Prior knowledge:
15% strand, five-stranded antiparallel sheet, 22 helices, five-stranded mixed sheet, single chain
Amino acid sequence: MNEIYLPYIIIQTAAGLLAALIAWHAWRRRALPGSSHFVLLMVAVAEWAFVGAAELASTEIEVKIFWAKLSYLGLVSVAPAWLLFVLNYSQQSGWLAGRRGALLWVLPLIIIGLALTNEWHHLIWTRITPFSEAPGALLVYDHGPAGWISTFYGYFLLLIGAVMLIQTTQHTPALYRWQIWTLLVGLCIPWLANILYFIQWPLPGLDLTPVAFATTGLVIAWNIFRFQLFDLVPIARDALVENMRDGVLLLDAHNRIVDLNPAASQLINRSSAETIGQPAEIALTDWPELLATYRETVETPTEVRLDRERSEQWLESKVTLLRDQQQRLTGRLIVLHDITARKQTEAALRQFAQELQAKNNELDAFTHTVAHDLKNPLAVLVGYSELLENDENDLSEKNRQQCVSTITRLGLSMANIIDELLLLATVDRIEDVKIGPVDMSDVVANALARLSYPIAEAHAEITIPERFPVVVSHSPWLEQVWINYMSNAIKYGGNPPQIEVGFNELEQPDAQGGLQFRFWVRDNGPGLTREEQAKLFTEFTRLSRIRIEGHGLGLSIVRRIVKKLGGQAGVESKVGQGSTFWFTLPGPRA
């Protein structure tokens, strides 16, 4: 062995060991896409390097030629293995799947056969001469047509792989682009080494191409450790549909985020550069609801609620388990579909159904109340009418007057119930009524005029201010509020009823900063307990079951009217000290 070649022998041997080590490491991950072809690539490089070292160490020409022939086993396998690796890595192997992929090996197998039988035809090497007369000197090989075909074929396959990698960078995230560009830089090293071999530098016949390919393998290995090359295989971006509205998250077997589309990035409010390569536990730490979805092993849709700063968002999460041909779990595909609009519609429908049910309950309650309140006075009214109609009854003038008075009072009571029922039909249609400035003095005067008969009959004493303020309201509704309050005070005040009507301006303005007025009717009746007060304004209940006679129907309407007009209604009462019924309304704005 010529000692001048010892450093190159060591380099070739080290390159072979490095390639073998990388091949072993990749073999441990052979289940991942592209790794099996990378193993073949590194095995071919290792064989080429080891055989090259053996050729350098040999001293006899025949032995050197023997090792040169064997080197073709690895030499011609590198380019096809590289192309298949790139195709699988970029998920573009469809057009070379199955038997079509075997076509790549037809020419390499022919070249191997020609190399082993070169002395019969000299198609690989036309002439082989020692570089010098020193023992163990390098051999210089003059390539024949088959040798050049082999070289051009290898360059062609390497070039196709490089072009495909460049195309892949156009639609992959930044992390994948770094992977691909490092692969391309690594590929340039063998090309440079092979060019140096053909220009016979630094020594004629010295081929360091396998060393360069081992260096490329080291670059790929660095990708494995730095970027998880085989764990983060870029699937075809067309499959994710960059412009689709649904968010797509791709997780690997170790629950790291492999890829996500712009919609998913927007949903989790993090860019792809921040999330790709991160464990899902870290990348989705702000969304614990989403974290639960990737752990799902059942492929059924799950509704996820995300709390935003000013709103809520609903997503439908569908997890698809990804498996290889051996049915081993290789990752998860999570599709996030925004169902916020659907959930809002469902909530609106539920609210509408509840309101409709409430209205039905209220209608049922009012129906029973009206039937109850009309039935008794109607029966009495008919009885008195029949009594007056019967001429055989010898009634005194006083008795006749009492019958007429009773009929009048009952008729007014029934008319008031009917007015309340008609008013109820319009309360919910606030858009159909005119809201504007109303002089409360006129409204109170009209209400007192309508109550003149019961006031006179009960000998009620009513005290009112000389003047009331102007409010923003609707006169017919407001008039009914006063009638309800004052008629209740007449019925349940003292004997005789002493009623005080008044108002005061509230210190606290309304939501728009305008004036607020509080109006009230105070009686001298026996007062109400806390339980009775709580029942007075109860809505959506069969009022006949819980109301105090005369209060239930009217006061329920009062609260609804005042609420529609932007105010509130209530009662203050103590047993033995009378009751004060009040309501608030906004005043006109400047």
